[in-house]
Amino acid sequence: MRQHIDISEIEAQTKIRAKYLRALENEEWDLLPGPTFVKSFLRTYAEALGLDARLVLEEYKLRHERLAEHELLPITPASRREQGRRRGPPPGIGRDVLVAVLIVALVGLLIILGHNSGGGGGKPASTTNTTATTARKHHKGKARHHRKAPARTVASLRLTPTAPVWVCLQASGNRTLIGGHEIAPGDHLPTWHSRHFVMTFGNSSVAMRINGKKVTVPDVSNGIGYAIDHTGHRSVLPVGSRPTCG
Fold it and tell me: Is residue 11 a contact partner of residue 20, using CB atoms and an 8 Å limit?
């Protein structure tokens, strides 16, 4: 509703039937074919609306997915044979093994201490700690650097006429947003969202905002046309490729 997109337009864009889209909106999971289809529909629907599909799926799994079958098995007492296996070896054998392990560990500790105290070739403890701290900070900095915002799936577009101007504006899914007529200052135009826009302006009396960023239109005498992709990249259309909304 915020994007002014009708359910039939989403149905044509995603190839998901309108009744299933309404079931997703109302969380009526029993009306959908199955959990696999639910997650597939949710992902496609979220991407079409420019939402983070991963977060939508995680919320669905957290709130609505049932426990796995092995988690639903009843708790049964262990058999006597299993209890016997869990008791372990007799106490005498356990103590002997424990003493042997302690002796080996003690000898290893003495060897390590001897290597660290002799030779004098290693770095001081303070230098080692400083190096470790610097490495951790560097790692955190790299992690923050690589944590990028999710890629755009739709671009936003807003037109503001500065004088009367003829406009033909079309979006993905064969949607015509302005059907080849004149707009003027004072016209209340919405902000549109789409994976792709194509447009023709009769003159340069219009200001554009693409993904919130103001973009100028050069002064032209015979009109100009643009194409805008889902990232907001704008390219000039040749005369033969400009839409006419005819």
Answer: no
